[in-house]
Amino acid sequence: MSHDKSKNKDSSTPIYSTTERNVKSCPASPTRPLDIDDLFSSPDNNKPNLEILKQHLLLEGRLTENAALHIIEAGANILREEPTMINIDAPITICGDIHGQFYDLAKGHEIVDSKQKTTA
Fold first, then answer.
1. Per the record, where are the segments of Basic and acidic residues compositional bias (predicted)?
2. 80 and 100, same structural domain?
């Protein structure tokens, strides 16, 4: 870990920097949140560029409020048009409730993609 060579006055505990990355091997989070123009190729396109979005979120990047709301609204519109029940051809992989854990969702897609025998 990166830390200042000086010690805390009251103990021998090192003083860690708040301006530098303490773990140099961990990439820094993006400094600018993604906006609608970064994610969508045109205003009429309701599907974001998933690779850009995935990489940004894996690096713990943020979205602007407008971009997040646009994705939510576009997704809600798609779901409203879908039937309640659908027929899916086997084989399939079913993922239970992940309670908003993005990294678990990304890992699940990675596993399914590596097998390429199932429908994600």
1. 1-10
2. no
